[in-house]
């Protein structure tokens, strides 16, 4: 049985990282991430207009967790757990098929330091072992080679390439889908 109903938010730890629940004090850092064109270059989502929009977004993350719809972590370094440097989480949970989509973003100051790899290892293990996912998918913009390479490094396999299946800012964009099966199923 797929499980996204936890009695409390499952904070996770790695060698260098704390993966914790989003909180309203993260609004400034999340706003900075979601309005940074370098971070958002391949994330085809509307940019927030102001901090109140981000605070609503954080509230919806937490409500989504409470309903069992998603599970999104703040990525923070252990030496400064209050400071958000990125996020990683599961969205678009498909209960019938025990599948969820993973997504992540990281502040450019922390790129190429193995942080997303470290967070992925922990969240993939959590997805398979604690949530009982059968598979995890990732949907990337085909231009995002860095994301493609990190997914492949962690065992994801390309499942599909959809032509112009996503409409954003007046144009149809392609999507590339990667998947990872639970090795224990």
Automatic annotation (TrEMBL):
Database matches in InterPro entries: Acyl_CoA_acyltransferase, GNAT_dom, N-acetyltransferase
Pfam family, one: Acetyltransf_3
SUPFAM superfamilies, per database record: Acyl-CoA N-acyltransferases (Nat)
Stretches assigned to the N-acetyltransferase domain: 17-174
PANTHER family according to UniProt: GNAT FAMILY, PUTATIVE (AFU_ORTHOLOGUE AFUA_3G00765)-RELATED-RELATED, N-ACETYLTRANSFERASE DOMAIN-CONTAINING PROTEIN
Protein name stated in the entry: GNAT family N-acetyltransferase
């Amino acid at each position: 049985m797929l499980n996204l109903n936890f009695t409390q938010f499952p904070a996770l730890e790695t060698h260098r990282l704390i993966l914790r629940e989003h909180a309203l004090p993260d609004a400034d850092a999340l706003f900075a991430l979601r309005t940074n064109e370098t971070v958002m270059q391949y994330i085809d989502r509307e940019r927030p207009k102001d901090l109140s929009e981000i605070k609503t977004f954080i509230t919806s993350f937490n409500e989504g967790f409470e309903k069992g719809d998603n599970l999104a972590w703040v990525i923070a370094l252990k030496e400064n757990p209050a400071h958000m440097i990125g996020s990683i989480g599961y969205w678009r949970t498909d209960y019938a098929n025990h599948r969820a989509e993973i997504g992540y973003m990281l502040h450019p100051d922390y790129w190429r330091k193995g942080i997303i790899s470290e967070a992925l290892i922990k969240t993939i293990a959590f997805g398979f072992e604690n949530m009982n996912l059968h598979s995890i998918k990732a949907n990337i913009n085909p231009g995002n080679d860095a994301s493609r390479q990190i997914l492949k490094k962690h065992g994801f396999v390309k499942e599909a390439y959809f032509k112009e299946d996503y409409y954003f800012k007046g144009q149809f964009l392609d999507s590339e889908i990667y998947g990872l099966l639970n090795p224990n199923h």
